[in-house]
Amino acid sequence: MSIRDRVRGRALPTEPVRFWADTGRWAAAATELEEAAAQVQAARARGRVPAETQQRLDDAEAAVEQLEVREFVVRTLTPDDWDLLVGQHPPPEGADPDAQWDPATFFPALLAETVTLTTDDGPESSTADEWAAMFTDGEFTTGEKNTLINTAVRLNTSATLVSTAMGKGSGRTPS
Description:
Layout: H1 3-8, E1 14-20, H2 23-45, H3 51-66, E2 69-75, H4 79-87, H5 103-114, E3 115-117, H6 128-136, H7 142-157
Antiparallel strand pairs: 1-2, 2-3
């Protein structure tokens, strides 16, 4: 079997990106978890953790586990599809000479081509116009927006490397 045959048979990389569905509930639950953990740690330092203190921590951990998460899956484009997409969004006139694309149009188009939301009914996607509107309307934080964009750009412009200490044949796992 040739290298080409082996490479041709593999799936292109994908990467999940997860955000809390309700950031307000997450913030409250995270604060409670942090306070409960500190209370248990202080009690351990005194030599005894009362049952109600441990129960508070257990309840806080369970509350965080019950919070809904939105999972997006970012996929890699083929090199030809990537080049086509970049070519459709040239840098605007007067842009930095090193600019590769127009961020205002390229990023929503990139997400439209690479990102799906995992739902009970299957994956859902959005158009470039919908992504642009979601960003403009503040439906995503700047951090969430940047995480999705950076993940999509990274998956399509960088190799997905495997640590030399992982995988079959690495010497760390049985072959």
